[in-house]
């Protein structure tokens, strides 16, 4: 599929023992730093535009730095930030570098608390100033705060208005920065509450500071802020005094997993990453539930707190289809089921002719769904074989039995992705010609003009890659028919919870529906939906309705798919082309614990999502449709 810029990745490491413990047991005081590196590198799929890390050193003396941060932009950012950290150590004598006590006293990033972030921009904003973690400084250790997140809020303007109403003056209009200032303000209030309490108890000076750091409760901070956040989020934070938190949205839209033992606490966006990095079994890793936070105090004591009451489960199904690594035990099974569910519509598309059909996949994320499709096809074929043998058992000659048993599902590696080529694709007149060569084919893998060719992909969003590259390059093999299979349903609606697809005109399904309305003289449907969306904008307290659904309502899924084929098939294509989609029912049967399907159904889990999809439709109408 075409690459989607999607939600970011987070990683946290909290060491529960002194650095010398890890040096003695694992051979290096950098145990925590190395674990953070691995957690981030193995989530590289979640962010390739930048990366950052933050570190807190516990028990630093006054006058010494205790909070460190490193950030970089670009696809090599992970390597760059860790190289920058190690740059501090390059001139040390071996005895110094291998001395955990020296490191603790003298070296930056020699701490007990680490937080990492991988960035994919979903707002179009780029540059080092947008790379997490964001940092808020103060001379009181407990008031220092670094935050990062895998999130997108749909109501940033409301949060902005809330913090300006109490007198704050943010220097940037950025969701993470505004969230940092809101959390920072509440952290200040929590520290000041404890200061007054300790002062009333007769404490003075550093005794107050130590008492505050021992008693601070970050759940108070989170409970004041998170109820006003509309969107999908996993927000992580660390304070200068050594507290940390990670909180998940109450709908469970964005994922987070954690592992804890008596040596370490780790958290990441994906479960198999923790399994591999920590070498632990899946049953030892827990998922952070909807509205929960994992809170760790300065002493390393941790607990789970229900910060916001959980709402209806709307865990993101696109995580299961595409975004998360397929190495997760449950995601692997689910993707195979997605492929298996499509067997019967695929067979119908090739007129049940397995003898003259070759099956393959679009590399690389569709591979697991392809395995599931293969298993389903083999089950179908084995059933046929049993029926044929049973019907002819007393008449079968040996060669006929051999012929039946030798029948197989024909599988070939047809499509090849030239990943490196993407780097050199430029803008301008040459772009389309270069884009056509992002994929290559295996010549001789099918019988020209005789075989059907079925290729499965994980999803079809914009259709750009299909139109510019895949269909054209597959047609060079001269198949009788090309069947493109999508393991996900038709992607019809934008996402506003952390994935870069927010404009209506990006979706080939939307373009197809609009084209059908025009073809059938039904443009009044488009105008009527636009007027309803406009009226809803100004109607105070009216129930929010997704009026974009009305664009699709007159048509069946099959009608929209046929129109998509018409729009996506390049001129001069010889083979007949068909697209087969997963159904919503098939999606939910395959991924029962992740029912968040707003991309496909338009049923947004939060009011902000519904408001923004209507705004996107209004923008499309006023900037494109009505002008043309």
Automatic annotation (TrEMBL):
- Name all Glutamine amidotransferase type-2 domain ranges: 8-299
Instruction: Tell me the first and last residues of the signal peptide.
Output: none
Supply the alphabetized keyword list: Glutamine amidotransferase, Glycosyltransferase, Transferase
GO molecular function annotations of the record: glycosyltransferase activity
InterPro entries given in the database record: GATase_2_dom, Ntn_hydrolases_N, PRTase-like
Listed name of the protein: Amidophosphoribosyltransferase
């Amino acid at each position: 599929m075409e690459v989607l810029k999607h939600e970011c990745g987070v990683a946290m490491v909290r060491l529960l023992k002194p650095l010398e413990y890890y040096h003695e047991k694992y051979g290096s005081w950098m145990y925590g730093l190395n674990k953070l590196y691995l957690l981030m590198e193995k989530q590289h799929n979640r962010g390739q535009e930048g990366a950052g890390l933050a570190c807190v050193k516990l028990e630093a003396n006054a006058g010494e730095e205790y909070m460190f941060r490193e950030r970089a932009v670009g696809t090599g950012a992970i390597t760059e930030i860790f190289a920058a950290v190690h740059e501090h150590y390059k001139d040390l004598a071996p005895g110094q570098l291998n001395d955990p006590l020296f490191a603790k006293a003298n070296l930056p990033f020699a701490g007990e608390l680490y937080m990492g972030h991988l960035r994919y921009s979903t707002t179009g904003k780029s540059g080092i100033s947008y790379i997490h973690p964001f940092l808020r400084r103060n001379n009181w250790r407990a008031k220092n705060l670094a935050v990062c997140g895998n999130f997108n809020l749909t109501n940033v303007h409301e949060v902005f208005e809330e913090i300006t109403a109490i007198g704050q003056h943010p220097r940037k209009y950025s969701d993470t920065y505004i969230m940092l200032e809101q959390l920072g303000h509440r952290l200040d209030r929590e520290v000041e509450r404890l200061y007054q309490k300790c002062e009333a108890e007769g404490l003075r000076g550093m005794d107050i500071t130590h008492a505050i750091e021992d008693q601070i409760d970050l759940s108070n901070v989170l409970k004041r802020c998170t109820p006003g956040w509309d969107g999908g989020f996993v927000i992580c934070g660390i304070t200068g005094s050594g507290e940390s938190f990670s909180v998940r949205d109450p709908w469970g839209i964005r994922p987070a997993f954690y592992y804890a033992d008596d040596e370490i606490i780790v958290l990441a966006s994906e479960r198999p990453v923790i399994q591999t990095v920590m070498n632990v079994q899946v049953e030892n890793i827990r998922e952070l539930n909807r509205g929960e936070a994992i809170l760790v105090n300065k002493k390393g004591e941790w607990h789970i707190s229900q910060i916001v009451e959980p709402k209806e489960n709307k865990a993101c199904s696109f995580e299961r289809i595409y975004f998360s690594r397929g190495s997760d035990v449950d995601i692997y099974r689910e993707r195979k089921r997605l492929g298996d569910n499509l067997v019967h519509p695929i067979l119908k598309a090739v007129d049940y002719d397995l003898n003259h059909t070759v099956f393959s996949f679009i590399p690389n994320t569709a591979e697991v769904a392809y395995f599931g499709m293969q298993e389903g096809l083999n089950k179908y074929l084995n059933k046929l074989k049993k029926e044929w043998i049973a019907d002819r058992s007393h008449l079968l000659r040996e060669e006929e039995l051999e012929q039946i048993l030798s029948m197989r599902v024909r599988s070939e590696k047809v499509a090849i992705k030239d990943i490196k080529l993407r780097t050199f694709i430029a803008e301008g007149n040459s772009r389309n010609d270069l884009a056509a060569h992002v994929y290559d084919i295996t010549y001789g893998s099918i019988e020209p003009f005789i075989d059907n060719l079925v290729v499965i992909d994980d999803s079809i969003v914009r259709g750009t890659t299909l139109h510019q590259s895949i269909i054209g390059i597959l047609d060079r093999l001269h198949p009788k028919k090309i069947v493109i299979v999508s393991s996900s349903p038709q992607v019809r609606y934008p996402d506003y919870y952390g994935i870069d697809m927010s404009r209506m005109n990006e979706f080939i399904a939307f373009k197809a529906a609009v084209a059908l309305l025009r073809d059938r003289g039904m443009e009044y449907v488009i105008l009527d939906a636009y007027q309803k969306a406009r009226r809803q904008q100004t109607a105070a307290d009216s129930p929010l309705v997704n009026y974009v659904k009305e664009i699709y309502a007159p048509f069946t899924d099959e009608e929209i798919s046929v129109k998509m084929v018409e729009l996506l098939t390049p001129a001069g294509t010889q083979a007949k082309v068909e697209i087969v989609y997963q159904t919503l029912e098939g999606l939910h049967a395959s991924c029962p614990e992740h029912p968040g399907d707003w991309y496909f159904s338009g049923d947004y889990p939060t009011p902000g999502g519904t408001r923004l999809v209507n705004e996107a439709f209004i923008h499309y109408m006023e900037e494109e449709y009505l002008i043309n």
